[in-house]
Amino acid sequence: MRILLTNDDGIFAEGLCALYDALCQDHEVFVVAPEAERSAVGHAITLSDPLRVKRVKRGNVFFGYAVNGTPADCVKIAIHELIGPEIDLVLSGINRGANVGINVLYSGTVSAATEGVILGYPGLAISLDEYKEPDYCFAAYFASILVDFLAQNFLKNPKICLNVNIPFLPANKIKGIKFVRQSTAPLIERFERRVDPHGNVYYWQCGERFTEQDPDTDVVALKRGYITITPLQHNLSDPELLSKIASWQIEF
Ligand code: MN
């Protein structure tokens, strides 16, 4: 397959390199990724500044294109300018840290996969549930198994968009794979108020916790040691509410 590989942690991130190494034997992998970390930029695109592209080497060999934009920018510019439309899969990751629950909306990793689907390609986002110096070995191995499975079974359907989260556990401690919905339970979050050396107050967002209890959600299944696979769609309209408000009579 011809795979467009991107992420939101930046082109030099360990997770992206691990995924590249796991896939480059069996597939043609094209890397187009942000030149620096752009985590939690969601589906932002760059309109007010030019996009600049640099060719990047890894170990003295051409590795890919670094873009001074967002993950969604990377997918667009890859397909329209750098690689071309002949792509079989838009793959994003491996992200450092899980992308489950409400955080899916903030995730640049997931938005890159969604952008692929918007442009007519299958999208796959992979995240590892560990932030402090994770080892991506198993996650990259699992991603390659999943890519091969999808290639054989589903990738002819360009509508498919999957958000995959992998627990950071030894392979024999992982309980299995769960196909689950995205949790929409609110997060408990807070801001830490600090004072800088010049006496100015500033704030740092921190202490985020999930409130979800339903075992059939990405948040809880991942916490319990399952690999979670959640199909996503980018149509944000609410059909149930639409049918209710369709009869509204608003005078103007
Ligand atoms: Mn990230």
UniProtKB/TrEMBL annotation:
* EC number per UniProt: 3.1.3.5
Q: Which Gene3D superfamilies does its entry note? A: Survival protein SurE-like phosphatase/nucleotidase (3.40.1210.10)
**What Pfam families does the record tag this protein with?**
SurE
Q: Which GO terms describe its cellular component?
A: cytoplasm
- Which SUPFAM superfamilies does this UniProt record tie to the protein? SurE-like
Q: Where in the cell is it found?
A: Cytoplasm
Return one GO MF term: nucleotide binding
Q: Which cofactor does it need?
A: a divalent metal cation; Mg(2+)
Q: Which UniProt keywords apply?
A: Cytoplasm, Hydrolase, Metal-binding, Nucleotide-binding
Enumerate the catalysed reactions. Answer: a ribonucleoside 5'-phosphate + H2O = a ribonucleoside + phosphate
What superkingdom does the record give? Answer: Bacteria
Q: Read off the NCBIfam families from this record.
A: PRK00346.1-4 (NF001490), surE (TIGR00087)
Q: What does this protein do?
A: Nucleotidase that shows phosphatase activity on nucleoside 5'-monophosphates.
What HAMAP family does the entry give?
SurE
- What is the name of this protein? 5'-nucleotidase SurE
